[in-house]
Amino acid sequence: MTPANPVTSATSRSKLALRGDLLDFTASPAWGQLDSPAVRFQPDHWLLIDEYGRIAGTQGQEPDASWTKQDHRGRLILPGFIDTHVHAPQLDVIASYGAELLDWLNTYTFPAEQRYADPALARRGAARFLDALLAHGTTSAVVFPTVHKVSAEALFEAARSRGMRLIAGKVLMDRHAPDGLRDDVAQAERDCVDLIQRFHGQERLAYAVTVRFAPTSTPAQLAMAGALCRADASLYVQTHVAENRSEVEWVARLFPAARSYLDVYAREGLLHPRAVLAHGIWLDEADRAVLAESGAQVAFCPSSNLFLGSGLFDWVGARAAGFAVSAASDVGGGTSLSMQRTLADGYKVQAMAGQRLTAWVALHAATRGAAEGLGLQHEIGHFGLGTLADVCVWDWARGPVAEARFEVARELHEKLFAWMTLSDERNLVTSLVAGRTRYQRPT
Ligand SMILES: [Zn+2]
């Protein structure tokens, strides 16, 4: 998006100082702890961003005249959100009625994805998708395009032109999908190798070997995906696992030799510290131990899990087992790109399981926790010195209900929990990516 504010645009290469209430995390908050030492809250402070778009520090006193200043006094400044599981082409099918996972794919999703074979449509879709992320306060994402190579190219190019941290890869699916959405092992491998050479490790882009889910890949294709990972340990993996009970039963029929759904991936070498598995609802103790051992993380997608009736993710069980959990919208199974709405749904899912999700655990999972799970804590997710300034400025409250609630909130957790529950993209004032304004709310 072209910066809407010409002043900001003209000064985007100078040193920038943002004034507001700064909040980030220095560590992982303990489950259930409201007064957490992992929270770094600096009310009415300045966030300093150097001429290279990196965080240069925070301070209480006003910086000198060499800094361009933006005064956001009385607003909340957070690291940009990281959405660890979202489908770019599914903006077209968000909020589709009346289906569980397998019906939903066949009825809504696959027809929408077929259209992304068209390069012009893929480019328009990628631009619209990334601008929508930025307009929701999400500055980094792990993204599924479609099976079409051109859809991955379009997504990478669009992220590059916006300076965004993006992890993506051409979707692999060579069976159980309609015409126009299947590849074959040999062509898919050639496409992956070409995309890896052109985009992986370039600027802020990284390649993820992207298996849609076990049912839509033949054993030969899964073996090819595993071979790509073994050949280059810096590659990510993204896929789905154990989302829905019918899906789990189908996988058991398709892969009778595997101990479990997760084991289908484990056997092929697809579980490693750079793997992001969406959902992970229907796992057993042995699966949880395998996940912890592998270093892979699960992307918890509460909005999607509720909307598609998939099930309740056991976050406490994940913590007990010791694997990382991040937060994700899973649009279009999820119903909003807003991470606040996602996290507020996460609270409700945990409440249904008799657990209480603090704002700290939730917000950490969408910022520093997600960054650590991706091995990117040197770059994103917090205000540490030298990280890139992917930063969002938010109104604490908008509208009479939220404003009245904020007015009577006293404790810091109370304020953040109310913010997480009552706010959404309408609270977003501006999004910066590496210190440059990439979204500005119209005035
Ligand atoms: Zn998904």
From TrEMBL:
Residues 77-436 form the Amidohydrolase-related domain. It comes from the Bacteria. One of its GO terms (cellular component) is cytosol. Binds 1 zinc ion per subunit. The lineage of its organism: Bacteria, Pseudomonadati, Pseudomonadota, Betaproteobacteria, Burkholderiales. This is Guanine deaminase. Pathway: Purine metabolism; guanine degradation; xanthine from guanine: step 1/1. It comes from Paucibacter sediminis. One of its GO terms (molecular function) is zinc ion binding. GO terms for biological process: guanine catabolic process. Its EC number is 3.5.4.3. Keywords: Hydrolase, Metal-binding, Zinc. Its cofactor is Zn(2+). Belongs to the metallo-dependent hydrolases superfamily. ATZ/TRZ family. The gene is guaD. It holds the Pfam family Amidohydro_1. Catalyzes the hydrolytic deamination of guanine, producing xanthine and ammonia. InterPro entries: Amidohydro-rel (IPR006680), Guanine_deaminase (IPR014311), Metal-dep_hydrolase_composite (IPR011059), Metal_Hydrolase (IPR032466), Metallo-dep_hydrolases (IPR051607). It catalyses: guanine + H2O + H(+) = xanthine + NH4(+). It is an enzyme of class 3 (hydrolase).
